[in-house]
Amino acid sequence: MSTEPLPSTLDVRKAAVRSATVGGVLKPQDLPRFRALLAGGDGIIRAELAFSRDEENRYLVRVAVNADVTVTCQRCLEAMPIEVHAENTLAVVWTDEQAAQLPRQLDPLIVSGEICQLWELVEEELILSLPAFSYHETEDCKRKLAGFAEPAPQMAVDEGRPNPFDVLAQLKPGSKY
Length: 177
Ligand SMILES: [Zn+2]
Known about the structure:
It is built from 6 helices and 7 strands, in the order βαβαβββαββααα. 24% of the residues lie in helices and 32% in strands. It has a 5-stranded mixed beta sheet with strand order 2-3-4-5-6. A two-stranded antiparallel sheet has the order 1-7. The chain has one domain (9-140). It is an alpha+beta fold. The protein has helices at 12-17, 32-35, 96-100, 118-129, 142-148, 164-171, and strands at 9-11, 21-26, 43-53, 59-72, 79-93, 107-110, 115-117. The longest helix is centred in the C-terminal third of the chain and has 12 residues, at 118-129. The termini are far apart. The protein binds zinc ion (ZN). Residues 73, 75-76, 78, 136, 141-143 line the site of zinc ion.
């Protein structure tokens, strides 16, 4: 896939007639509404958009996006990397009325004139695909280190030193010690 920046706009009629495919990369900062949902500006977004016409002469855009970004873990509130994948097929329309007439499997992409705003399209698909809540894997999460860990099982106890777990046991009410 191309490592060039994704073009920000495209003539949608020409692209559909030629069955054009455009691809490229973006940074989170390029998409301010998406960036606002992230923990930081690091990362990369790879997008590919394939234009075509269907048998009803509609202009279609197949969007595939992969983003490596960081979000906030909702358990420990530290940043965590995630991969967001979005894939959708949209039909280009010019009015809400046309949008309402589309078959159910096609989402409308409302454009004004001939120009498709590719970055906005990618941003919209990413926002829709971003999980509402993200959590670290248990072993990576800082919340556990802050005192929620199970004590590690101790198979062999060093006879010379007091076992801290024995000390704890002695402090419990009803202890035999
Ligand atoms: Zn976490």
